[in-house]
Amino acid sequence: MANSNLPRRIIKETQRLLSEPAPGISASPSEDNMRYFNVMILGPTQSPYEGGVFKLELFLPEEYPMAAPKVPFAYASEPNHFYEEPNYLEGIDWDSVFIPNLSGCCGEIEVRFLTKIYHPNIDKLGRICLDILKDKWSPALQIRTVLLSIQALLSAPNPDDPLSENIAKHWKTNEAEAVETAKEWTRLYASGA
Amino acid sequence: MGNKVTDELLSTVRSIVGSEYSDMDIIRALHLAKNDATAAINIIFDTPNFKSKELPAIPKTPRVSRTVASNSSKRNGFENQNSNSNSIVREANATDCSVSDSGEGFVEEEDVSRESSLGDEWWFVGCSEVSGLSTSKGRRVKTGDEVVFTFPLKSSSSRSPSPGKVFGKGRQHAAGACSEIVRFSTIESGEIGRIPNEWARCLLPLVRDKKVKVEGCCKSSPDVLGIMDTILLSISVYLNSSMFRKHHQNSLKAASNAAEESVVHPLPNLFRLLGLIPSKKAEFTPSDLYTRKRPLNLEDSSGLRASLLHVNKSTNPSRNENEVENEESISDADLDNIVGVGNCSELEEMDPPGTLQCELRPYQKQALHWMIQLEKGQCLDEAATTLHPCWEAYRLADKRELVVYLNAFSGDATTEFPSTLQMARGGILADAMGLGKTIMTISLLLAHSERGGSSSSQYMSHPSSEDSEPSGMLDHCQDPPKKTTKISGFDKLMKQKNILINGGNLIVCPMTLLGQWKAEIETHAQPGILSLYVHYGQSRPKDARTLAQSDVVITTYGVLASEFLAENAEDNGGLYSVRWFRVILDEAHTIKSSKSQISMAATALVADRRWCLTGTPIQNNLEDIYSLLRFLKVEPWGTWAWWNKLVQKPFEEGDERGLKLVQSILKPIMLRRTKSSTDREGRPIIVLPPADIQVIYCELTEAEKDFYDALFRRSKVKFDQFVEQGRVLHNYASILELLLRLRQCCDHPFLVMSRGDTQEFSDLNKLAKRFLKGSHNAQEGEAKDVPSRAYVQEVVEELRKGEKGECPICLEAFEDAVLTPCAHRLCRECLLASWRNPTSGLCPVCRKIISKQDLITAPTESRFQIDIEKNWVESSKVVALLHELENLRFSGSKSIVFSQWTAFLDLLQIPLSRNNISFVRLDGTLNLQQREKVLKQFSEDSNILVLLMSLKAGGVGINLTAASNAFVLDPWWNPAVEEQAVMRIHRIGQTKSVMIKRFIVKGTVEERMEAVQARKQRMISGALTDQEVRTARIEELKMLFT
């Protein structure tokens, strides 16, 4: 793997994530690929996700943290499929491939939920609708700040800018019921496996 | 017709058009269509009578587009006008028909009678016999038959909707014929022949531009024409008055003559063909030049090489800001070769007026005499009535008796009398540095100063009216028609000249010399004789009267350029509102680049006398001279086309005549003596105390050597990469940067760790102020984009305390930190790398759009990354310098220490202070007053022994004879620059013997630079082709990396 050539910034970020983790967040690099992180975020208190442990995967592209267009992130149709480099393009259902708008693509972190979650800004493949992951990327952002933002997104779902239309609709028409579903899902899929 | 028609094409076309058309027809069509078969077929079918005239004769139904009646009446009017003109032959026999063959796609040269209604505009120039060549066989033409000329149009013009209706704008051929053949035809027989090429060539452009029209008739011809028979025509040529208009529309700023490359002007040629004899001949014509050039060729070749100068022209890939680094000013010796050192010992001397309060040396008196003589020329009144030697006068055959002036060089035509007033009056005083050009000029100012235009004011105010017309010269101007040719734009121009206020002397000099000029004039001129005014600074008054009142106005090139660029330069009361008695450009090589604003600005000044002072009339390129000549108005060399054709090109091509010609141009208008020039008795004209020039070779200490070697190895790896990729010349700037570091390392290793750009904002308070001001300004509107006051203060405080912090991008301690306008700190490189666009992008922290210029280099303690005071170590070079200075300390003899790097001067301040050697410093950051103060301090305060000076800041003209020692700490690429710096002390006024020491570190790039300098000398003086120079340059760089 290309770990030997890991930029100092990634090493530094990793060290800091490990030595002083943010509350409710843990991130550790994969042994095979130091650019690939296994992430766990605890559902924030007073949110429908309280008590849940959400797994995410995060990948730092070659250009991280600077700007450069790249191969779009491709998702497998199976949400819990851990893709493996370098064959992660195999077995892709191209219909469900999410191709980000390259014009705003800045070598940003690629991150998605592996744990099923009922949230208007997260779709069934775990993709997250968060501006800093797209056109608002800045090299001054870090893994930590990205994960904190995701954590905040769990606290404050934003059905007005949805990624998952159905959930968002549900949220808008009957928030109480939607929140219940979210709690239900948290229990079902994220109860500390 | 260069393109060859193949049989294949021919048969292709034939297969479509059928056998009705002859081979010749098809070939003709193919030619017109540039061998495009389809286009050719279209031409044939689209053109009703395309078939050549040999086949069935031209259809006899002439498509005449006008009525005979109106035509003849117009013509009668015209003939009446011309009835006195016995030279018009055509009238006698002219038949009143002409083929307006709308089928043919050529311009129909209209019968003149048609145009006669516009008679006022058309001036009959004259008529002549022309031997046309028959292109037809079996046709007939009678003597007296009118012929109509058909001029091919440019291929680009589009089909005119009204064929033949507008003069010169008829239909053009479908395929856009672009031949230069002018055919003629008669109504009876159609096309019968063509006129000779030399006529066609000069008529074509003029007819196309509607400047000229032609009519003709047959004078004699064989009864039945055969191909190539001679048809003698009589043709009459008319000139449109718009011809004269153009000349006057040259505005002040449209001096972009560089674009004008052609030297073949049709009008002079046409006049010649018409056999017009100038009523007043130009003294100086192009043919003179050509013929004069011959004998030049026979002269001995005194070892002059045409490649002396242009070597760097095409081989300078980094010809921009980087240029300073590798500029190749030529050495004095080469300069002397090119421009020639005049043998001036024969010049007469002239005693300066008593108002000059110093003695002139004999050679200076010679210069005074020479300058006075050059200025005299002819007296102005005479000049105003004498025809300029480049212009000739022609009387047109038109009965209105117009006189037209034709510039033999530019082809310009005008009805305004071109007088010698427009000629050069002045020259180039090119004495080598240190001979006292300033004092010679002051003596000239004192010897003769008036107000500009004073003696010619009458002429200027009535430029074309009768009373000022040269009597006995030409008698054209009483004619009323003359008035009609006066163009309003021209009047305006004259008016502008009229409103100029007559002023005195204008001296334009570099900013650094402003004070020196003022001081020298004040010291050397008897008080009260010359009123002096320095036109400089933001608050300079814009009042022409103030300027004109003073006998001497001193200004800078910068002021000149800015006033030139200002709107309405003539009216706004600045330098351009004055007609100067005399303009003097000091360090005139400043305008060497002819396309630069400053060069145009200088040329545009209105003055009766013009002088260039420069020790280096050519700095890099022969072209430098051109700009001076243009300023001086030395005709015809102010026309780029002529300069280029007769001087520049031959010179670059190695033809020595170019150089010889320059020398002969310069000889009468340039005076150049050097320190080694001798007087009549063969004694040197100037005796300076001896100069002792030494090189001190230093050895690096062990530690320095390690450092240097490491740096060298690193640089060499990079360089070798470039060599391997064959991209040495593409990476010139990077390579120079590598070399720069190595060279700095020879001075002091600290320099390599220095940063170049900390000067401006090193003061934290200033920085805080700038931020806070910024936030204040933006209060209304987008206040939220601006950092809060508190935040800025925090940042500034952080900086003040020297807190380290880390870059938000690389998460490391800042390296070369910059501050964004939003007060965020990042490494410069990280920030720039985060942008996709090299000049602007978002602030990574707050996403505000910022541009590169907005970035502020974050202040650090000093420009060095380490604390140089605390960690001070002396480099071997510094040790050697201190040793020298210590030896001089008790003699009280003053020294100048030169370096190219102000950072090194920073460093030198430490050991000088520690050793109690008091010094002052002069570098580019000082403004005028500060400079003057420093120079005064240095020359007057006997305690100050050392002047630290940056090699470039010293620049030009500064007189530093208070010092008698110069230490040049680092070698410059070109020894000429070093020499120039050193000559600041070794010049007139120096009484003590002079010691010059250059420091070179052994076994380093410095030593090899010396070798390159020597090599460069050889290269400059040897003839090398461009390719050889390219290779030589790479070789040179390779030498440095060995």
Automatic annotation (TrEMBL), chain A:
Active site (record annotation): C129 (glycyl thioester intermediate)
Residue intervals of the UBC core domain: 5-191
Record PROSITE patterns: UBC_1 (PS00183), UBC_2 (PS50127)
GO terms, molecular function: ATP binding; transferase activity
SUPFAM superfamilies: UBC-like (SSF54495)
Keyword vocabulary terms for this entry: ATP-binding, Nucleotide-binding, Transferase, Ubl conjugation pathway
InterPro entries for the chain: UBC, UBQ-conjugating_AS, UBQ-conjugating_enzyme/RWD
UniProt keyword annotation of Transferase present: yes
Stated family: Belongs to the ubiquitin-conjugating enzyme family.
Record protein name field: UBC core domain-containing protein
Species of origin: Quercus lobata
TrEMBL record, chain B:
Ranges where the record places region Disordered: 62-87, 309-330, 453-485
Superkingdom, taxonomy of origin: Eukaryota
Subcellular locations according to the entry: Nucleus
Biased composition range(s): Polar residues: 67-87
Keywords carried by this UniProt record: ATP-binding, Chromatin regulator, DNA damage, DNA repair, Helicase, Hydrolase, Metal-binding, Nucleotide-binding, Nucleus, Zinc, Zinc-finger
Residue span, Helicase ATP-binding domain: 418-635
Domain RING-type per the UniProt entry, residue ranges: 807-847
InterPro entries: Helicase_ATP-bd, Helicase_C-like, HIRAN, P-loop_NTPase, SNF2-like_sf, SNF2/RAD54-like_C, SNF2_N, SNF2_RAD54_helicase_TF
Low complexity compositional bias, start-end: 453-463
Residue ranges occupied by any Helicase C-terminal domain in the UniProt entry: 877-1042
Any one GO biological process: DNA repair
GO CC terms, sorted: nucleus
GO molecular function, one term: zinc ion binding
One Pfam family this sequence matches: Helicase_C
Family under the similarity heading: Belongs to the SNF2/RAD54 helicase family. RAD16 subfamily.
Protein name: DNA/RNA helicase protein
Organism this protein belongs to: Quercus lobata
Gene (name only): LOC115980060
